[in-house]
Design goal:
Shape: globular
Mean pLDDT: 93
Structural class: alpha/beta
Number of helices: 19
Helix content: 25-40%
Number of strands: 20
Distance between the termini: 23 Å
Radius of gyration: 22 Å
Length: 527
């Protein structure tokens, strides 16, 4: 290795290239892989939910959630901040008890999906969210039978809570980022995409994805403390309410050029994140056919600005046109099949198809009413980033909401790869664990909480799944000439573990990373 890149590949003859300053690492028969590249990991939110919030991820009942909140110590600002409650595990009955917990202490609790937040009565009082809170386009304000606010807010309505929360101290953010960076290196992760930093990021989980987080990442890169390679998508309006105007104002601001003096292979502002719709469990995903909403059945809708489906689709096309014209990449959150197709149609309608293909716009999550849509994606150069662990963990809930047929068709990974779509697997941490091994296992087995995936046609091979966490994300990053492969001249970003292809995929969980190397530097070494 020289200047952070691979200079030669071979056998024992390479020892002749070593000198007194060369460190020789014995892989002890293990496999040397390209560094893991998580193409959709909320770095800032993951760091803060792990190190600045009470953990609720493993709670098995609403009573356990309340008990933990009752026992927690408030932060220096007097708040109890919690994260990770999961409706797929807890259901909804009993959630109302959180509203009355800690009556003298404000409590804010983010769910595992990042699309819902619950607060107690004292928090409602301090945030001045009383009975007259209006509905929020693109979001859901939970209400009691008498119309009063019950403390639950989803998607765009989360802004009502997050905008008024006391901000985190800069040093608290910085220390959490460095701790989480070490944790990712321990897993073999060398690169990631944080999909949503900027002014709209404050509406996301933990209210920690806003502009100060992007500024701190930039400072860490300038100071030589950012050993991860990070791509960022800017988020201007949050989980709902994006418009052509908000995107135009964001693109004209100083944010796109914030990291222009930093090595783009270390930190790069790659494009813009757009929330086209929400998620099925809050009834904000947009499907062609009806599915089960929190109250009754419906289709959902785009969460963009507009008063009708037609208005919102027009807004969608204008948003995509502006991002594309700026030469940036659009990463579009779309969980319903209608939202996914609206995005594809918007890309297909762009005036310069060749330029759009070069920008490598991609759909995040994605749902497909008909897999023939995948052929259109391949022709247009649209990528597909999705999260097998989410499907695995929420399988029973998604099966109930969407029905068996639509659930089985979720994440057509094998078909997408066969059709030539650039598919990357990602964790979506903190929605699920940042451990890439869980994503690979879920993609290969297709096992979910609804049952085993034996015989499912969309199962991947282990080699395919590994490529979708190394090679395809490098393509998504516009960096396939620099990383994702072990080749001469490529970045020396590597991880070493026992051969992951030599045993059943489930054995990956017993196969820890021995070394992680970024740019030729060892950033993790297992004791």
């Amino acid at each position: 290795m020289s200047d952070g890149r691979i200079t030669a590949i071979g056998g024992d003859e390479l020892l002749q290239l070593a000198d007194g300053s060369t460190r020789i690492i014995d892989a002890q028969g293990g496999a040397i892989l390209p560094g893991i590249n998580d193409g959709h990991l909320h770095f800032a939110a993951s760091a803060m939910t792990r190190y600045a919030h009470l953990q609720l991820k493993d709670a098995q009942s609403w009573q356990e959630v309340v008990d933990r909140i009752e026992a927690a110590s408030p932060d220096p600002g007097g708040w109890v901040r919690a994260a990770g409650w999961d409706e797929a595990v807890l259901g909804t009955e009993g959630s109302e008890n959180l509203a009355t917990a800690r009556p003298d202490t404000p409590v804010v609790a983010f769910d595992a999906s990042g699309h819902q937040v619950m607060v107690n009565g004292e928090a409602l009082r301090r945030l001045e969210l009383g009975e007259k809170v209006p509905d929020v386009p693109g979001g859901v304000v939970g209400r009691n039978h008498d119309g009063s606010v019950n403390g639950r807010f989803a998607d765009a309505a989360m802004r009502l809570v997050n905008d008024s929360l006391p901000p985190f101290a800069e040093d608290q953010l910085r220390q959490a980022f460095l701790r989480f960076q070490d944790e990712l290196h321990m897993l073999g992760v060398t690169s990631l995409t944080d999909p949503g930093l900027g002014p709209g990021g404050r509406t996301l989980m933990a209210a920690s994805c806003d502009t100060p987080s992007l500024q701190i990442l930039t400072e860490l890169a300038r100071d030589g403390l950012l050993s991860l390679r990070v791509n960022c998508l800017l988020l201007f309006a949050g989980t709902g309410g994006e418009s052509a105007q908000s995107v135009r104002e964001g693109l004209e601001s100083a944010l796109p050029a914030l990291a222009e003096d930093v090595d783009p292979l270390r930190l790069r502002i790659a494009g813009v994140k757009v929330f086209a719709d929400g998620i099925p469990r809050s009834g904000t995903a947009w499907f062609h056919d009806e599915y089960q909403l929190p109250c009754g059945h419906g289709h959902g809708a785009l969460v963009l600005e507009g008063t009708s489906d037609e208005d919102r689709v027009d807004q969608f096309r204008a948003i995509l046109a502006q991002i594309d014209a700026a030469g940036l990449q659009a990463g579009v959150h779309a969980t319903g099949d209608a939202a996914t197709e609206a995005f594809i149609e918007a890309v297909e309608s762009l005036p310069d198809p060749r330029g759009a293909k070069n920008n490598r716009h991609y759909v995040i999550h994605g749902a497909f009413a008909d897999n023939s849509v995948l052929q259109r994606m391949a022709r247009a150069g649209i990528g597909y980033s999705t999260n097998p662990s989410i499907r695995s963990e929420a399988g029973a809930l998604m099966q109930r909401l969407l029905g068996q047929q639509r659930f089985e068709a979720q994440q057509p990974l094998a078909t997408a790869a066969e059709r030539g779509v650039g598919v990357s697997l990602a964790s979506d941490s903190p929605v699920t664990s940042p451990d890439w091994r869980q994503s690979v296992i879920a993609a290969v087995t297709r096992n979910t909480s609804a049952g085993p995936g034996d015989g499912e046609p969309e199962r991947l091979t282990q080699a395919q799944a590994l490529a979708m966490m190394t090679q395809t994300p490098a393509w998504q990053d516009h960096a396939e000439q620099d990383k994702g492969w072990i080749r001469e001249g490529y970045l020396a970003d590597l991880c070493i573990l026992r051969d992951p292809l030599s045993a059943r995929v489930e054995e990956l969980l017993n196969n820890p990373t021995s070394y992680t190397i970024v740019g030729g530097n060892v950033v993790y070494e297992r004791g």
